[in-house]
Amino acid sequence: MSAFSSIPDLEEFERIALAAYDGLPEEFRALTGDIQIRVAERADRESLSAVGLTHPLELLGLFEGIGLAHAPATPYSGLMPNRVWLYRQAILAYWQDHDERLDDIIAHVLVHEIGHHFGLSDDDMEEIEAAD
């Protein structure tokens, strides 16, 4: 587990997530554009349904928007910003069941969801991680 003396509330959790994003290589962050990092207690029903899940603790994070691979060549107005959602309760449940640092888990989920922004599928990312 991590060096946290207590379970972080939503505000502290968001601070950890933003610090994880700031800790990514500058070249990588530059490619993400104006992506927003958001934290919520848990995924809503609509988000769960969109990925074929039913229980909110099954979804740690979600990319919402149009990935770079699918974006139009010429941007147009009216598009919602791309967002990465991190779900605090699901990540905390995962942390409780695994011997990993909380900030490392948050960073991993963040990078995974940003991978969707780049157009990578879950299978693509598993293949990349397996090659390490």
Please give a handful of descriptors for the protein shown.
single chain, 132 residues, mainly alpha, 3-stranded mixed sheet, 6 helices
Textual characterization of the structure:
The chain has 132 residues and is mainly alpha-helical. Helices cover 46% and strands 11% of the residues. The chain has helices at 10-22, 26-31, 45-50, 88-97, 102-117, 122-131, and strands at 36-40, 61-64, 83-87. A three-stranded mixed beta sheet has the order 1-3-2. Helix 1 (10-22) packs across helix 5 (102-117). The longest helix has 16 residues, at 102-117.
Compact overview of the structure:
The chain has 132 residues and is mainly alpha-helical. The chain contains six helices and three strands. Helix content is 46%, strand content 11%.
